[in-house]
Design brief:
The protein is α/β, with parallel strands linked by helices and 392 residues long. Helix content is 39%, strand content 19%. Helix 5 links the parallel strand 5 and strand 6. The structure holds zinc ion (ZN).
């Protein structure tokens, strides 16, 4: 039996690019890796340009999609943006016997930065087979076994890159949340995150489309793929919709994915500011200047109030225990972010707080000027005189 390799030679901006990349050696190599034999014929499809850096190998009743790496590995966004397109095209193909593969053509530049490796792991988790990664990278790269492993890896990656404005993954007791940035290159990453997580999720997934200025959602092809996975609900969220819900509630409630997204953006992954707990199920976004306090203010118009309610500076990550202690004003912060406790607590309660609280003041990265401003507003309504510094 002989394999049929089909590809579109023209790239959108570079006519004939894939004729140059797909030399006889490369085609033979791909044929051998995909089919285990060396016989193939080639069809050059000139009907349109190449999307997803793809070629197709048909053999023995199976259609194999092969997505090619870049020859010149540049920034992380440019070197990986064809991948979600390849995945979407793969999902649009309704043939039953299909397989999606990734092939490294010989390249210059570093294709194995921490971020690239993260994306390869996502691809593997999404079911993509890497045909020849072991020739270029000598440590095994493995798919994620579960969402916790992915969240931890993501967190480490984001700390090292301090990459703002990307997408975030979290978990509650009964759901997984993806806060998906839909703008620019992030939309590719959001799509890939969703597909990978869908394959390992042990509970339903909510994907929040974080729409910005122009209410952009994820591209339709990505939404179709996500829809076909069957375990992801896509929820559009925007400041416009959040604002309407906020006013409908009489300005006392804020259930806003945008607020959590803004906290992620400012503070990074969920981690209790007082004990360091990182179990996503029990870490919450805690308002500093509370939503009902804001609504009582006579100083601002409604739009400005809403802006304060969703500001990423107006909050902290706290575990549910510390959140309750903070909301009950049993644990407080002075205007410099030092931790204080009520001074009429019984000895056992003080001992309990001491044994579970490992910070005597907030970290510097939390204490932005805006954050201090919110703290001041909170403290205007609290009597700090009957409190004491939390001695460690
Ligand atoms: Zn805590």
């Amino acid at each position: 039996m002989i394999a049929t390799i089909t590809y579109r030679p023209n790239a959108q901006k570079t006519p004939g690019l894939f004729d140059l990349l797909l030399t006889r050696e490369v085609l033979l190599d791909i044929c051998q890796l995909v089919t285990g034999q060396s016989q193939y014929r080639v069809i050059r499809d000139l009907s349109s340009y190449n999307k997803g850096r793809l070629l197709y190998v048909e053999y023995n009743g199976v259609i194999n999609y092969v997505s090619l790496s870049e020859a010149n590995i540049g920034g992380r966004n440019s070197s990986l943006q064809s991948v979600p397109t390849a995945i979407n095209l793969f999902y649009e193909d309704h043939r039953l016997n299909k397989r999606l593969c990734y092939y490294f053509i010989s390249h210059i530049g570093n294709a194995f930065t921490d971020y690239h490796l993260f994306v390869y792991r996502l691809l593997m988790t999404a079911g993509v087979e890497f045909l020849n990664i072991d020739r270029y990278y000598h440590t095994p790269v493995l798919p994620y076994k579960n969402v916790d492993e992915l969240i931890i890896d993501r967190r480490d990656n984001q700390t090292s890159n301090s990459s703002n404005n990307s997408s975030y993954v979290s978990k509650s007791r009964d759901k997984i949340q993806i806060y998906a940035k839909t703008f620019g290159a992030s939309k590719y990453e959001s799509t890939l995150l969703a597909i990978a997580i869908s394959h390992i999720a042990d509970r339903p997934i909510d994907l929040f489309n974080i729409c910005e200025q122009d209410l952009k959602s994820l591209p339709q092809s990505s939404l179709n793929t996500i829809d076909s996975l069957g375990n992801i609900s896509v929820l559009n969220t925007s400041l416009f919709l959040d604002k309407r819900a906020y006013f409908d509630s009489g300005k006392t409630e804020l259930r806003s994915a945008s607020y959590l997204y803004n906290l992620f953006n400012r503070l990074g992954a969920k981690r209790c500011a007082l004990c360091g707990c990182e179990i996503p199920e029990i870490i919450q976004g805690a308002h500093i200047w509370g939503v009902s306090q804001i609504s009582k203010s006579t100083e601002f118009d409604d739009d400005t109030k809403f802006g304060h309610a969703v500001s990423g500076h107006n909050g902290l990550w706290l575990c549910s225990n510390h959140h309750k202690l903070f909301d009950s004003n049993i644990i407080l912060f002075d205007n410099d972010g030092c931790v204080r406790i009520k001074d009429d607590l019984v000895t056992d309660d003080v001992a309990f707080i001491r044994s579970t609280t490992f910070r005597s003041s907030l970290d510097a990265h939390v204490l932005s000027d805006e954050f201090r401003g919110y703290l001041q507003r909170r403290n205007e309504t609290i009597d700090l005189t009957h409190t004491q510094k939390l001695a460690m």
